[in-house]
Amino acid sequence: MTTARMVETGSMFPAAVRAEWTKIRSVPSTGWLPLVTVVLIAGVSTLVGAFVAEGQRREDGAEYDPFTLVHYGVNFGQMALVAFAVLAVAGEYGSGTIRSSLAAVPDRRVFATAKLTVITAIALVTAVASSLSCTLLARLVMPAGDISLTASETWRTAFGHVAYLTLLAVLCAGAAFLLRTPMASMGLLMPLLFLGTAALTAIPGVREVARFLPDKAGQRIMRLRDFNAHEVDPWLGIGVMAVWAMAATVAALAAVRRRDA
Predict the structure, then answer these.
(1) What is the CA radius of gyration of the chain?
(2) With 0-12 CB in 10 A as exposed, 13-18 as middle and 19+ as buried, what is 183?
(3) Euclidean distance between CA atoms 77 and 89, whole angstroms
(4) What stretches of the chain adopt beta strand conformation (E)?
(5) Nearest alpha carbon to residue 137 among 52, 12, 49
(6) How far apart are alpha carbons 164 and 69 in whole angstroms?
(7) pTM of the complete model beyond 0.85
(8) Fewest C-beta atoms under 10 Å: which of 57, 100, 139, 214?
């Protein structure tokens, strides 16, 4: 790449980011889904913590892990975040506005990178809001002693919450660039992430591989204890999730460059 080309690309990127931010804000579905994500995650987690924690503590005894309840809402709210990431990308392909976007930003690497940057930033803010809400509300509604705001494990699981959701959005956005339609993207991601993993981890001989699937590996850091003997280490798990997200990003950038709109 020549110096002139590099300068042109560098000057185009901020404008492309502003354009992507405007598009996402102006479409009702992508504009509201991050807020829905926070409300679902915080709401479900708070209700579960308030009504289940006491009984769960008695039932589990020494094995009690309050953080399975603190971040329980992620199982539900993440669906809204997946929908946000998919629609932010595939919505343009489905409506045909992708042609206008590529006409405005001819360098497809800049276009894709700008869109992924905005999606990642929004997902990060959403994840921070939901993580802090879950943690602080759990401190209020769960039994005394369950959650300490000075304990390292409280903030480790809160960080894991943020990292997992942010990487999940990147992974889903990358998949949407590859599949290019909302129906195909949602049709693959929803069963794979939320049904397929649970089924695979129940099959002997397959569960050793299934533990490296993105949702199974990535969510491990939000808990203190394993559910079974086949789970990965918490920090390894979030590393595996990062590899999935990186692979999806690389594949998406390659696909955008090679395919027609």
Answers:
(1) 20
(2) exposed
(3) 19
(4) none
(5) 49
(6) 16
(7) yes
(8) 100
143: alpha, beta or left? (left if phi > 0; alpha if psi -120 to 50)? beta
Burial of residue 145 (number of CB atoms within 10 Å: 0-12, 13-18, 19+): exposed
Q: Find the angle CA(186)-CA(172)-CA(66) to the nearest 5 degrees.
A: 100
Amino acid at 114: A
* Chain segment 132-160, per-residue pLDDT in tens: 999 999 999 999 889 999 999 999 999 99
CA contacts within 13 A on the Cβ side of 11:
6
Tokens 């209700």 — which residue? 47
Q: Distance between CA 28 and CA 49 in Å, rounded?
A: 31
Q: pLDDT tens for residues 77-111?
A: 999 999 999 999 999 988 888 888 888 888 999 99
Q: Residue 233: which of 246, 248, 217 has the closest Cα?
A: 217
* 8 A C-beta contact, residue 105 and residue 19: yes
Q: How far, CA to CA in Å, does 180 sit from each of 62, 104, 176, 184, 196?
A: 48, 19, 5, 8, 22
Tell me the C-alpha to C-alpha distance, in Å, between residue 249 and each of 55, 123, 173, 205. Answer: 43, 15, 8, 30
